[in-house]
């Protein structure tokens, strides 16, 4: 095979172009499989984070009522979520009670008064931003509801996670 054009010289090692292309194709296929399997994980993580936050607020409202029999957090308005629900002052759960460590990001500055769902002028509630999406409310039994008010919300005046996480 001395005269063959395919003959390799001694000491030269490496991969052919075809071998490199095959390896790159296999890596691309594996990357596609990983992306497809991980794609839905982030949305379900956001939904679980919402549910956890909702449970924390629910527990804080129950603790508030336990410390003050027959009294729910201060009312600041109503919202129509399958019948009128009471919008409450999230700050009443953070200051001075400490039932929530900080006001959740899922609050919204409703009208700039000192009695908003979360007022950016009061202590620990300074973390709430007017661009957040959820207004938190409760019924007379102390059950927690939320509604989304952003223009990109899937369903205004509907309770529950709406595909948006502030």
SSE-based structural type? alpha+beta
Reading the helices and strands in chain order gives HHEEHEE
Q: Count of helical segments? A: 3
Number of strands: 4
User: Beta fraction of the residues?
Assistant: 5-15%
What key phrases describe this protein's structure?
alpha+beta; four-stranded antiparallel β-sheet; 166 residues
Word description of this protein:
The chain is α+β, with helices and mostly antiparallel strands. The protein has a domain at 42-148. It has helices at residues 17-38, 41-67, 91-94, and strands at residues 75-80, 84-88, 134-138, 144-148. A 4-stranded antiparallel sheet has the order 1-2-3-4, covered by helices on one side. The longest helix is centred in the first third of the chain and has 27 residues, at 41-67.
Topology:
Blueprint: H1 17-38, H2 41-67, E1 75-80, E2 84-88, H3 91-94, E3 134-138, E4 144-148
Antiparallel strand pairs: 1-2, 2-3, 3-4
């Amino acid at each position: 095979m001395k005269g063959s054009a395919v003959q390799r010289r001694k000491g030269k090692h490496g991969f052919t172009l075809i071998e490199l292309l095959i390896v790159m194709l296999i890596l691309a296929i594996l990357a596609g499989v990983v992306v497809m399997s991980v794609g839905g994980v982030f949305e379900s993580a956001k939904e679980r984070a919402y549910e956890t936050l909702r449970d924390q607020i629910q527990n804080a409202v129950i603790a508030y009522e336990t410390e003050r029999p027959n009294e729910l957090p201060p009312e600041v308005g109503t919202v129509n979520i399958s019948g009128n629900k009471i919008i409450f002052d999230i700050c009443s759960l953070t200051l001075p009670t400490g039932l929530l460590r900080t006001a959740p990001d899922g609050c919204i500055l409703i009208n700039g008064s000192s009695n908003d769902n979360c007022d950016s002028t009061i202590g620990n509630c300074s973390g709430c931003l007017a661009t957040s999406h959820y207004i938190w409310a409760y019924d007379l039994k102390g059950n927690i509801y939320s509604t989304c008010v952003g223009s990109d919300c899937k369903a205004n005046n509907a309770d529950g996670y709406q595909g948006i996480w502030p």
